[in-house]
Amino acid sequence: DTGVSQDPRHKITKRGQNVTFRCDPISEHNRLYWYRQTLGQGPEFLTYFQNEAQLEKSRLLSDRFSAERPKGSFSTLEIQRTEQGDSAMYLCASSLPQNTEAFFGQGTRLTVV
Amino acid sequence: GEDVEQSLFLSVREGDSSVINCTYTDSSSTYLYWYKQEPGAGLQLLTYIFSNMDMKQDQRLTVLLNKKDKHLSLRIADTQTGDSAIYFCAERQAGGYNKLIFGAGTRLAVHP
User: CB contact, 8 Å: B41 with chain A?
Assistant: First the structure.
């Protein structure tokens, strides 16, 4: 078990471009979460999947953001028409239903220029 | 409302104890967590406490929970330079899954 894996680790994009990030949770973890962390702040919850179902979305997740988990394993987070305010670390976490713990990946750092 | 607050910075001498404090507002929180983040890295879970406990000890780490005052603390005994990092307090809301509300983090600096 290699833990939660995120790809890419870093992404620099021009304003207005679309970006997509991938998260591979720990195998057999059916719960998956996306968080966003801006500089100097703690992570903020974005969305939660149980298997392939997206069960909660934060108000932070504007219409330009979409997350999917089509087969209940890996997940993608897409940001359309990126803005400078989207620059942040995007963290993915996974857990089992009986776990009290969520395990975080290393994150994808997005810089919008 | 949902709010977790922490002091922003703590400086300690190597070998001393560190105490990082946190206050939260949601009385329905089921679990409270301490995570560690080193520069450029993700979050590492250090320890957690269930809301009906008042203390948990795990090697050099001691967590104290005062549910009445909604106050959580993390004590690190014999602090080492490798403990230098940002420490986040987080509360897990009732609802059965790991939707966590994080504080802004406390930067711990350990000096010789």
Answer: yes
Q: What is the DSSP letter of B97?
A: S
Q: What's the number of CA atoms in the CB half-sphere (13 Å) around residue A47? A: 20
User: Does B87 lie at the interface with A, CB-CB under 8 angstroms?
Assistant: no
Q: Residue A1's pLDDT band (boundaries 50, 70, 90)?
A: low
Token pair 């949902």 in the structure block, residue = B2
Start-to-end CA span in chain B (Å):
41
Q: Looking at residue A2, what is its pLDDT? A: 74
User: Closest Cα partner for A110 from A54, A64, A57?
Assistant: A64
- Give A 42-101 residues with CB within 8 A of chain B: 42-45, 48, 50, 55-56, 91, 93, 95, 97, 99-101
User: Which helix (H) or strand (E) is B72 found in, with range?
Assistant: strand B71-76
Residue pair B30/B93 in contact (Cβ under 8 Å)? The answer is: yes
pLDDT of residue B96: 67
Residues above pLDDT 70, as percent of chain A:
99
Rounded mean pLDDT, B39-63: 91
Contact check, Cβ <8 Å, B31/A100: yes
Q: Which of A79, A80, A106, A113 is nearest to A23 (CA)?
A: A106
pLDDT at B1 over 50: no
User: Of A50, A99, A105, which has the smallest distance from its Cβ to B42's Cβ?
Assistant: A105
CA of B78 to nearest chain A CA: how many angstroms apart?
26
Mutating which of B31, B43, B87 best tests the A interface, going by the most A Cβ atoms within 10 A? Answer: B43
